[in-house]
Amino acid sequence: MSWWEKLTGRDAGTTAAVPRPVRPRPPQATGVREDPAGSALPRFRASAVDQLDSRRGSGASGARVRLRDAFTPSQPVVDPHMFAGRAALLTTLIRAIEDQKLHVVLYGDRGIGKTSMLHVLARQATEARYLVRYASCGEETSFGDLFRSVAADVPLLFHADYKPTSDAIEKGATLADLLPAGEVTPRQVSDQFARLQGTRLLIILDEFDRSPAGDFRRQVAELIKTLSDRSVRVQLVIAGVAANLTELLEHIPSIRRNIVGLPVTSMTREEVGTLIRNGERASGLTYADEAVEIITSLAAGSPYLAGLLGQHAGLAAIDRDSLVVEPQDARLAIRRSCDEIVNRISERSRIAIAQNEAAWDALALMALAALQRGGRFGGDVLAPLESDAQVQDAVMQHAAEANLIERIEADPAGQFRFIEEGVPTYLWMAQAARRLSIN
Ligand SMILES: Nc1ncnc2c1ncn2[C@@H]1O[C@H](COP(=O)(O)OP(=O)(O)OP(=O)(O)O)[C@@H](O)[C@H]1O
Ligand SMILES: [Mg+2]
């Protein structure tokens, strides 16, 4: 059994499980209808009217529309019915907020499911009558603007100093009206939040890694500190791309006791399986067990990859005029996903990968480790290929010289990470596509 077969759980000896090459199909077989007027131009496949209501439209066109909602690789999950697994993490998150009254920092790789988790959390908290305010950070985010807009969503009805019958409440005034004009400090925000009664406010700050380092992050840390010191009814949930807590939130030492850091890690095989089965139910297609097995193996715990492969596989089945997704569709999905992902990485990385063809097997192992271990890995990941530690080191060094990976600064274990974030996903899919043409 080769290292690839061991990793993907497929045995080269059983023909049913071995991916076969997929030959390009003539255009009409890919589901692009021929133009009755004889023009060879590609056409839209589903009616826009059907797309207004995903339940409308029968057969292939309805399935195609439903499939786009069933798997949303480019968007976070919003519908709780489509949210797979993560029960333990959600429980921990809710307990930290509800019982421990802590502020939470959720961190993990890009596309691992942080925003989806935040959407579900927001929903559960709203159901429990929390006031929930979700905000996405960006390079331009300023502390004053952000918290002024959060305060603008809190009616004065919840302010201890205002009677329900007061004029200001009847006029729809909010906490923002009590903040001074101009710059706002964490202390001023916290002074107003301290007067909150009759509810709890949950402020979700997503994409925190994109917020400006320096002042903004220092002020957020200061706010957390002042809120915690005064046991105020306001909690923050911060999420962003990072390998650890410190990487995401500067000024950690001052607030370490008041926050809990929760990593969002790769999904288990069962969770990925649930994700596919949820998509199956929502799309109305049937995914053959073996197709689910291929997708689950190659998703490597990434909900993004699972959704991408699930969607492409479903579309491939519909293109064959079938409502049953077979292994051949899953294999075609690998190629199509690979073609899609390659456009998301830089020319520089693409050239470096192409120039290091001899190291592709090793690079694929590094990519898999990066996907499954939060981006960090050491030479030991090459064990399925090479047991000699010195040779492993040399291969890592070679990949570093090719500017694909780099040693993580001050990492006690001397681990590496990929320099460009989309590269491990591409390498892993590209390896899968290559294996298809070999077998
Ligand atoms: N629990 C889940 N169940 C089903 N699909 C999920 C789940 N979590 C994430 N996904 C899917 O995975 C992809 C990435 O999810 P999401 O956008 O939530 O990740 P993220 O960590 O916020 O990414 P980024 O770092 O880019 O902001 C999306 O396609 C989403 O639909
Ligand atoms: Mg996100």
Automatic annotation (TrEMBL):
GO terms for molecular function: ATP binding. The keyword Magnesium does not apply. PANTHER family: ATPASE DOMAIN-CONTAINING PROTEIN (PTHR34301:SF8), DNA-BINDING PROTEIN-RELATED (PTHR34301). SUPFAM superfamilies: P-loop containing nucleoside triphosphate hydrolases. InterPro entries: AAA+_ATPase, AAA_16, P-loop_NTPase. Coiled coil: none annotated. This is ATP-binding protein. CDD domains: AAA. Pfam families: AAA_16. The keyword Protein biosynthesis does not apply.
